[in-house]
Design brief:
By secondary structure, the protein is mainly α. It is about 70% helix and about 0% strand. The protein has three helices and no strands.
């Protein structure tokens, strides 16, 4: 399993109330930067990120 997938799995396993909003915003921003021109290994993470962004 890739590091981004493991991080994503960890983040979504925690209740949102446990995570500080500024950290979620920083994660969203960094995923946005990564997913503008993602390496092949990050495509799944970027698809998940896009679905989450659209759901909010």
């Amino acid at each position: 399993m890739s590091a981004p997938a493991m991080i994503g799995g960890l983040v979504f396993a925690l209740p949102l109330a446990v995570l500080p909003m500024n950290e979620l915003q920083a994660l969203n921003r960094e995923l946005g930067y990564l997913c503008r021109n993602p390496p092949r290994e990050a495509l799944t993470v970027c698809r998940i990120h896009a679905r989450l962004v659209r759901s909010f």
